[in-house]
Write a structure and sequence with these properties.
13 helices; 312 residues; 79% helix
Length: 312
């Protein structure tokens, strides 16, 4: 088990470094905001572009894995919504955001960093495929559902239009579109340009992990422990289990692409979860769940990697 901790410990130490840097005042919160924008708008889209456009694989997109991951994530989304709405009596808007937390991993910031150490040959491709599911289906669906269900007079057209504009302006979506255009056209990027793209992409994992720690440092925790435990359990256990079951049925449980997808699904929820929850008065619960899931995931992800090594 010590060799497993040797894999995961550096990842979480970088997160801790970001946390301490902000918590002690060594770095200001606006510095983390700037780094976060750089990661989301520059380095992570470049990473996704590199995964699709510059991949040596003959298959740019694995549609079966994309479909299976989408089905599993939507199942987790509805399960999270149902439990928070009918068990804990959260309002509909907040319940959809909590469901999104259960169904959507912090793929680019934490998931890829861990997966690239365990499955270096498949991590980048799987990240790109998962990002398509998250940014094209899961996140827009949850946000539209939350906005519609929370309004006194639901306006479906307005909510869909708002989600669509956010979708087409999403740098990750733009990166996927450009990468597919390059890949399908057969155009080869000049060697120096390709090298530049790979250099910028290489920055993403470390900066992203540091940003996660800095974001966590900006939130305080709440006493809503039953709700927090439910959300954390849904994200760290239910979501990866559903991903494994669905993909095992479609592709096979021992496939390295499947195992990579399960590993990415097992990491904490997206870092903007508290920001999304604040719109519906649930920032405190969201922040607590984000902090607790990040800490707990060090042990749960390490245990998952150990299990994978035992059965593969």
């Amino acid at each position: 088990m010590l060799d497993i901790f040797a894999i995961t410990l550096p990842i979480y130490l970088i997160i801790l470094f970001g946390y301490v840097s902000v918590r002690t005042g060594y770095l200001k919160e606006d510095t983390i905001s700037a780094l976060s924008r750089f990661t989301v708008r520059i380095s992570l889209p470049t990473l996704i572009f590199s995964a699709i456009a510059l991949s040596g694989s003959d298959e740019a997109l694995n549609w079966l894995l994309i479909f299976g991951y989408m089905i599993a994530s939507l199942m987790a989304l509805f399960a999270g919504y149902g439990v928070m709405r009918y068990r804990f009596r959260q309002d509909r808007g907040a319940s959809w955001i909590h469901g999104l937390a259960v169904a959507n991993s912090n793929s680019g910031f934490i998931g890829f960093s861990i997966a690239s150490l365990v499955f270096p040959e498949t991590a980048l491709s799987v990240l790109a495929w998962i990002m398509i599911v998250e940014n094209v289906v899961v996140i827009p669906f949850a946000i539209v559902a939350a906005e519609i269900s929370s309004g006194e007079e639901p306006d479906l057209a307005k909510a869909v239009r708002k989600a669509f504009l956010s979708f087409v302006r999403n740098p990750l979506v733009v990166a996927v579109a450009l990468a597919l255009a390059v890949r399908l056209s057969g155009i080869a990027l000049p060697e120096r340009l390709a090298t530049t793209v790979k250099m910028v992409a290489a920055v993403a994992p470390v900066v992203a992990l540091f940003v996660v720690g800095g974001i966590i440092a900006q939130f305080s925790i709440s006493p809503f422990w039953r709700r927090t435990a439910t959300i954390v359990s849904g994200k760290l256990i239910l979501h990866p289990v559903l991903v494994f079951v669905v993909l095992a049925l479609l592709i096979g449980g021992s496939d390295p692409f499947v195992l990579t997808a399960v590993l990415i699904a097992s990491v904490p929820m997206l870092s903007i979860y508290p920001i999304l929850g604040a719109t519906y008065g649930a920032e405190q619960i969201c922040a607590t769940a984000l902090v607790v899931s990040t800490i707990t995931s060090f042990f749960s992800v390490s245990a998952l990697i150990w299990l994978m090594q035992q059965f593969t």
